[in-house]
From TrEMBL:
Keywords: DNA-binding, Phosphoprotein, Transcription, Transcription regulation, Two-component regulatory system. Residues 122-220 bind DNA. Gene3D superfamilies: 3.40.50.2300, Winged helix-like DNA-binding domain superfamily/Winged helix DNA-binding domain (1.10.10.10). The modification 4-aspartylphosphate is found at D51. PANTHER family: REGULATOR OF RPOS. Residues 2-116 form the Response regulatory domain. This is Response regulator transcription factor. InterPro entries: CheY-like_superfamily (IPR011006), OmpR/PhoB-type_DNA-bd (IPR001867), Sig_transdc_resp-reg_receiver (IPR001789), WalR-like (IPR039420), WH-like_DNA-bd_sf (IPR036388). Pfam families: Response_reg, Trans_reg_C. Residues 122-220 form the OmpR/PhoB-type domain.
Amino acid sequence: MHILIVEDELGIVQFLKQGLQEEGYQITTASDGSKGFELIQSQKFDLILLDWMIPKINGLDLCKAIRIKDQQTPIIFLTAKDTVQETIEGLKAGANDYIKKPFSFEELVERIKVHFRNKKQTENLTLGNITMDLTRHIVLKDEEEIAMTQREFELLAYLIEHKGKVCTRNQILRDVWEINFEYDTGVIDVFMNAIRKKLNLKIEEDYIKTIRGIGYIAND
């Protein structure tokens, strides 16, 4: 998951970037609202951590600008502003959450996980003519439902969520199987073969490619 941090205090940026990268997140940073808005227009982020008091475009105005074109990406305010009126103002601007500085890093990580879970539960995933309805937990190919086991569903969703990026077998074991120790990665190939067989992918439907010796990549 790709997180944008818009924050002008260098110490906080370095602290958050290192900690969140260790949690497995991809991090991009901006030190002012103008740069943050520029990044948001050119890249897709899964969550935004936004300070209120930042140069050029303040966090409140940036949040409003984001919401004009993007209603889905979770935004968490990180700020010293903590009056009831300021909290209400931030939420009305479109923020999903509000954490007062100084804050616990552990609490922030848990809140991020909650927003990602909520985001996943309301999204559909697509890959070519394949659609995954995460709310109803079904897979459709050309509008025909494809029956999959829980693990097959989770593996396919993971590859589509990381569309365009190579997913190594070890990453898949860690994030899908939740295995953080040495384990036979061959089990992933077994599940991938089952998924491909169920989807009955034709030659022109080369949506999931094997990267020999490394893992898999999904692409439209």
